[in-house]
Amino acid sequence: MGNRFNIYIRYLLASALTAVSISCSNTRFLKPGQMLYVGGEVKIESDSLSKSEKKELQAALEENLVPKPNSTFLGLRPKLYFYNTTKEPEKDKGFRYWKKYKLGEKPVLLGDVDREFNKDIIVNYSENKGYFNARATYDTVSKNKKARVIYTLKPGAQYLISNVKFQKDSTNVNSEIQRVADRTLLKPGNAFDLEVIKSERERIDNSLKERGFYYFHPDNIIVQADSTVSKNHKVELNVKLKDDTPDLATQQFSIDKVVVFPNYNLQDVKQGKYDVPMNPDSLSKYAYQNIYVIDPQHKFKPKIFDRALYFKQGDLYNRTNHNLSLNRLINLGVFKFVKNEFVVSDSLQHKFDAYYLLTPREMQSLRLEALGRTNSASYAGSELNLNWTHRNFFRGAEQFKAAIYGAFDVQMGGSSEAKNMYRAGANVQLSIPRIVAPFRFHSSSAYVPRTNISLGYEFQNRTQYYTLNNFTASFGYVWKENAKKEHDLKVLDVTLVSPAHVTELYQKEIANSRSLQRAVEKQLIFGPTYSYTYTNTMLPKTNTIYYKGTLDLAGNITGLVTGANAKKDKQKNIFGVPFSQYAKIENDFRFYHKFSEKSNFASRIIAGLAYPYGNSEEIPFSRQFFVGGSNSIRAFRARSLGPGSFDPRTLNPNFAFDQSGDIKLEMNAEYRANLYKFLNVAVFADAGNVWLINEDTDRPGGKFSKDFLNEIAVGAGVGLRLDFSILVLRLDLAMPLRIPYYEKGDRWTFDRINFGDRSWRKDNLILNIAIGYPF
């Protein structure tokens, strides 16, 4: 213990000496007369500002100072050190160039700082915040070849708004401005703020865009400030239309004709086929409802545009319907480019025609995919997929997808008897861009709701064990309220699993194992499933979240009607197969915190419960929860952990199938940072497990109990991510820190970590190679 303590002391001393060396050595590279700029500071001298107001103003002013000093880490400047200690490269590439100019950072000198310019920035920003008589000075403080600039601001009292007036005139546009004046952002008593004034102009512009003023612009509004009419640092604001506002900006437009070109392409443009505006006589033969669809070849049904477009003849122009129409056309999935033009009518006053120029995608595509894979259970294999897609199957933007596939996994080592696995199957899916239902479904969203129908079949062959037939079918709807909220309702989701052959070897082994028996039982699962997703991760915010909740209800109505009760030997069958009855809920919550453009923190909590009842005493294996693997608890191999404190080492290795549970709790945390362009690094920790609802004699310790916290597995590790935008290749190296199937009091493994031991590394270091981020 004493030797280990001495080693730690030496390590800390060495680290401290290295830090001091890096800190001091950067200045020795400076030329005579040069000073390293280490930052600017703003001091505020004011008796009228509170401490919090001073702090807020100071932070805003310092953020605007330029240039920024060299970056620091724990008070050191390692990037500057790399720059200074690396010789000038001979070429603009290679390791030396990368180290000096990419990993390193050029020194920021005092001579690079325009102090007069920064002083003007401080004064201008202060006046924009209402400190009209602000004055600023600066001073330079230097020591040991390092310089800091101190700016002193005397802002005076901040001017407040005394009154806001919206100047009236006789124009139509002014009447619309007066109509929304009561919702102004400019409030008497608030501080004068140029940013708020800009926001008010944009608010007025947005309101006018909703009322037909297509050509209006925020710059057509002027807000005049008068500080002479009031005393005690008050200012009166006058909101008015500029005198030189173009006449077109004051006109309120409505829609005359809506014309759609669904086969628009550049070659036809060159030949003059899309000259707009078009002659009304040539349009008449393409009329459908209140729109015109120029589609001589009848590639598309006109009604899909009637559903997608929000504008109709006679409607007042508004920006909301403008954007909704464009978004819905894009979301149909059949158009590569969507262009919109509004052309002022020559014959009708205050009218224009709306033209939609749509360039279709290739309607059909055929894709062949081949991949190879290996896993930690000594299996290697390959998969081949052939996918055909038709994006306009019934000429109504319906997407039809058909796929056939085959795969195999061959055991490369371990048992002398190979247990190879083969899969082959086919599936089809039809996605209709509307809700097909006996009721009317109205969506004001920019996203097209869809009805999805799917059918599938898969043949599985586990040599030496069994073969299975797996049939699936579903019917349901997907719709989005907005960019953040999505609903996915499968009215009916059916799975039928039927064994085709079970070998004598497997039958002998499963005679005394209920969990192995379940793998070859006939299963019929049907019922509705629903999932709700909320996310704001696409927004440029510091803190964002993602949530997905899923509800799966199988056989509930059928079980109620038939009076099924498996516990009382009243299990009911459909076509000779017992149907599953259960309720399952799963919640996936994620939180992201952005430290900077190059670093962030990501975390996730998953909690799930599946409860069998009525016609079932157990949850079907395919619907249970699993943990472990590249997207879960990475220190444990996929589906090898749990349930509870059950020890998988007690199983026959030749029959060690995936471990599952009815309850799931998982927590993940990860710090991510960018090292260089596409190269990212991560440090992560994972924890969790699965448990059973009912006791299982084959898996002692698997049932959920009040002692569940002592059965949490913990792992941690580091990872590299190659982020090429279109593809993220992830390599995560993890090790277990807490193993739940060890004896109580001996589950933490810190004292057994030994990177120098080859046997320990083989048993404890798990390398996960995957595509994409884990969460």
CATH class of the largest domain, named Mainly Beta
**What is the total domain count?**
4
Class from secondary-structure proportions: alpha+beta
Q: Provide the CATH architecture of the largest domain.
A: Beta Barrel
What is the arithmetic mean of pLDDT? 89
Low-confidence stretches: 1-9
Using only C-alpha atoms, the radius of gyration works out to 34 Å
Into which percent range does the helicity of residues fall?
10-25%
Shape: globular
Pick out its properties:
775 residues; alpha+beta; Ubiquitin-like (UB roll); 4 domains; 16-stranded antiparallel sheet; five-stranded mixed sheet; 15 helices; globular; disordered N terminus
Q: Would you give an account of this structure?
A:
With 775 residues, the protein is of the alpha+beta class. The chain folds into four domains: 2-154, no CATH class; 160-250, membrane protein fhac (Ubiquitin-like (UB roll), Roll), CATH 3.10.20; 254-360, Ubiquitin-like (UB roll) (Roll); 479-771, Porin (Beta Barrel), CATH 2.40.160.50. The chain contains 15 helices and 29 strands. A 16-stranded antiparallel β-sheet has the order 12-13-14-15-16-17-18-19-20-23-24-25-26-27-28-29. Strands 8-9-7-11-10 form a five-stranded mixed β-sheet. A three-stranded mixed β-sheet has the order 1-3-2. It is globular. It starts with a helix and ends with a strand. 24% of the residues are buried.
